[in-house]
Structures are given as structure tokens and as C-alpha cells.
Amino acid sequence: MRDRISAAVLLDDDRVLLCLRSRSRGWYPGVWDLPGGHVEDGESPAAALTRELREELGIVAHADGPAARVVTDDYEMDVFVVRTWDGTIGNRAPGEHDDLAFVTLAEAARLELADVNLLPLLTRVMATGGGAAPRAMPELIATIRDAPWLPPGSRAEAVYAPAGEAPAPTGLVRLLVRRGDHVFCVARDGTGKLDLPTRRVPGLDDGRSTAELLAADVLGRPADVTLVGFVRNVVDAPGAGYPWPTPTAHFSVWAAHGEPTVDGQWLSLTDRGGPLHDRHWWPIARHAGAA
After folding, report:
1. Which of 62, 97, 128 is the last residue before a domain boundary?
2. Averaged over 275-285, what is the pLDDT?
3. Are residues 145 and 281 in the same domain?
4. What is the enclosing helix (H) or strand (E) of 91?
5. 3-12 and 75-86 as β-strands: parallel, antiparallel, unpaired?
6. Are residues 27 and 119 in the same domain?
7. Residue 133 pLDDT > 70, yes or no?
8. How far apart are the first and last CA of the chain?
9. Burial of 13 (0-12, 13-18, 19+ CB in 10 A)
10. Residue numbers of the domain that contains 67
11. 286 and 143 in one domain?
12. What count of other Cβ atoms lies within 10 Å of the Cβ of residue 136?
């Protein structure tokens, strides 16, 4: 059963209030999130929001109607826009939050956020003033709990996010070049297994510039790249030998158009018995082909 959550996009001109989740919390510690919390039994989402903002921030909020609704495998979240409130904002729940900050959208994009849906949501709400009807968010299309390539207790999430915001930190980028239902693949270094052209992201940023360099090398010319989606590793207890940032790290898939100039093979995406079916990115590429 999904958790029910109410959250606030609390606006002060061109800035939004974000809360830094306490590093001692068991769920997504040390990342930035919207203020709000769980809807209790018998409570409406609007009443839950009023209670949570009073408890967390010490204010009485005057919320507009829900601006968006986000649904994932784990939760359902109603998001309200708050432009006015009574009282002075302060961190009234230091056990839950280490810090509070009003940030611009550009500043939010540089923070480690608690959820993949958060930045696209803020982009839309702040661009429209919260008045637009909800539209499609990045779509969680597969979750692999206790994924065998991750430390115990971790999970991998495949997210379809066509032309969306590229997340950070990103560890690897992969290039999706299509010909009908076939994709261009090259041999992996060291193993020889066929995979999408792949490159490590040196600065663990959103990966866009690395994807552009990879596309230029594969296609023999500069090419535009567009985000298709990404796999997000969620690892709370990394253990020795896990090489990526925690608690989240991303591995993105970027689309480009053109004819490859490097050696490789075209493999079918529709062959469930083929060599690509067990690749982490396969649900994203298949979903893109069906969209």
C-alpha cells in the first residue's frame, strides 16, 4: 500500500522553500525536499498539509488547491502551492530537518534532491505560478528490489523521462541510436558483451556534456542529445567496494540521431530472449519505443 503524502511548494517571489532532511533519518537522509508529511487516517490532504506546516515550520499556511499529484510505487503525493502564511518560518522540527532555505529554481537544480519528480515539478509550478493543470511527470516504469548488482537492501529504479531534466549525480551515460526496433551496440571494454555506447561522467554532474561528447565520437560529428530516462540506484548502506555516490546515483540514457561511424552491431529491442534483455536500461529503451 502506498504512503499518502501532502507537500507544499511554498513560494516567496521567485524562490521556493526546501528542507534539508536530517542526516540521522532512515529514509533519504541528507537530501533536500519539500515541507510536508504523511496524511493520517481520516485526514484530508489539505488538513494534513496545514498540520505538517504548523509542526515543521511554525506557520499557518493559506494553500491554494492541489497543483499536482505525483504517484510512484511507494507513495501518492498531493502538492499544494502556498504563497501566503501567518507566522514566521523556522525549523520547528530539528529532528526531521537540519536546515531550511529559500532557493531559486537554478539553485534547486544544483542540490541533491530527495526524489526524481521534484525538479520537474518545481520547474512547472514555478513557471506557471501553480495554475496549470497537472501533466505527466517522469514515470517510474520498473523497480528491482535487492538488485543483484547492488549491495543488499538496495534497489534500482528505471525512470522514463523523455526530454526531461537530467539528474545528478550521474555516474555513466549511455547513447541510444535507433533504427526501427533495433539499437546500435558496441562491445564492452574487458568483457566483449554488447551494450549501448557508454561513458563515465568525470564530474558526476548531470551527464549532458559527456553524452554530447559520446555522441560526437559514435556518430563522427556533433549531434544533439535528448534525455530518454535513467536508472537510479538507491543505496542506503553501500559497504566496501561500491563505487558510486549514495544514497542515490543515476545512469542515464540519451537519444541521438545519425549513422554510427564506429564498429558495432544493430540488435533488436523486441527480442526478449536476446542479449539486451538483462541490461539495466532495457525497460527504458523498450518503453521509449512503445511511446
Report:
1. 128
2. 88
3. yes
4. none
5. parallel
6. yes
7. no
8. 28
9. exposed
10. 3-128
11. yes
12. 10
